[in-house]
Each structure stands twice: as C-alpha cells, then as structure tokens.
Amino acid sequence: MSTFLQVERDGGIVSVRMNHPDTRNALTTPEQIQEFVDLCAQLRRDQSVRVMVLTGNGSAFCAGGNVKDMHDRAGIFAGSPYELRNTYRDGIQRIPLAIYELDIPVIAAVNGPAIGAGLDLACMCDIRLASSTALFAESFVRLGIVPGDGGAWLLPRIIGVPKASLMSFTGDTINAQKALDWGLVEQVLAPEALMAEALSLAQRIASNPGHSLRLCKRLLREGQHMRLDSLLELSAAYQSLAHHTQDHQEAVTAFVEKRKPDYLDR
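Structure (tokenized):
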C-alpha cells in the first residue's frame, strides 16, 4: 500500500497531507495509524520543528473509518469483542495520544468533509481552519457505535457539552459556517485560499522561539485538568527554564534593538 501521509518541510513548518483521496482519506489500516504515530515521535525529537499543518488530498479531509470493513467485520473491525477492544487500544487510539503529546502547535486545514474519526482527528489539532466546502459530523451513533478514538473527550472541550451532545446524539452533519458559529473552527475560507492561510498562520507561529511554543502548549494541555495553584507552580518552573534560554535573551535583545530576532533553538 502506498504511503498514507505526504510530509513536506519548509523551515520550521511541517505540512502533512493524508493522501488516499480514492477512499476520502479514510483511516482503515494499522499501517496508516502507525504512520501517524511514527511521524509524531519523529517531530517530538526534532527541536527545530515549530508547527505542523495537517490536511487531506482530494475532496475530503478524512472520512473516518471504512464502513465496508465494518459491514464485513474485516480489517481493523475483525475479531471477537475482546480482540476488537485491543484493536482500538493498540490501534487508532494511539493517534490521539501521539498528537496530544506533540509539543508543537498543530493546525488542521480542513479541506472537505471531516466525518466520524475524521472530525475527531481535526479536534486533536490545536487550531482548525476550514474550507467553505468542509462538513463536520460526529456520526458514530448512526452506525450504531460510539466515538472510539477520543471524540467524547475532545469535542466537548472545543464546542461545549450541549453542542457536542447534539452532534453526538443525532449524528447530524453541520456545514463550515455553523462550525464557525459554534467555535469548532477559527476561520472559513474559499477552497483555493485554505492552505495559503494555514501556512501563513503557521509562519506567524513559527516566527516565535521554539522553546516557548512548546512550553506554552504544554501549559495549555496541563491546564485542562489541573487546579490553578498547581498550574501556577508548573508555570513558574517552565518560566524559569524559558528565562535561561539563548533564544529568550535574543528575543529581548532584538526587541530593545528594534530588529528582527535570529533564533537558534537553544
């Protein structure tokens, strides 16, 4: 099978395209899942990467699981209940954990339908921009199943419990404008302008010191389940680390000297 993820790099920006347009970029195989996990591990080790942009080739962002395989109880949907439980735990559930543990910001450029696991994949990203042709559905209930890849944790944190409940209980599809109104996406753009805007945003993010981006993202992540006093303690520890980086000193010096900073990821 051909490689699922097309990865390109421009400076500190990594662009990732899901590249099975014939299946609407459905997440169907252990190999696809492993590509996501391996890529995230690679990016975590590379301190020179500052932001990732995720999108899909073709008409869809990601159509979720392969319904034909569900019907046939084949592929990742095969086996006994016990085996299927472990297939989820050792398979697709590794993607939200891998993306969640990424220290760099991740932008989803949702170029078309993001359905089921495809919506959840978009929700794993930090910021979502959408094409005007994008559609969104937490559609598991319509297939008689539940969000198996973290959607019940992710979606309510983005749009709130009532709207997440509405999407999860009905399986209804919403368009890009409603996604914008509900706070699911930050911006809706013409299809031909989507990637340019996503890369422009990525460039604005990547222009900042890599260490502060990573520490800020970690604080935002940890703040979702910590008390304020605990988060303040962690913030103080991270801040002391940040103050003793070369890039912090360069940022302050460049500000005083009214010039563009030159960061070295140190």
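The chain has a mean pLDDT of 94. Residues 210-257 form a domain with the Lyase 2-enoyl-coa Hydratase; Chain  A, domain 2 fold (CATH 1.10.12).
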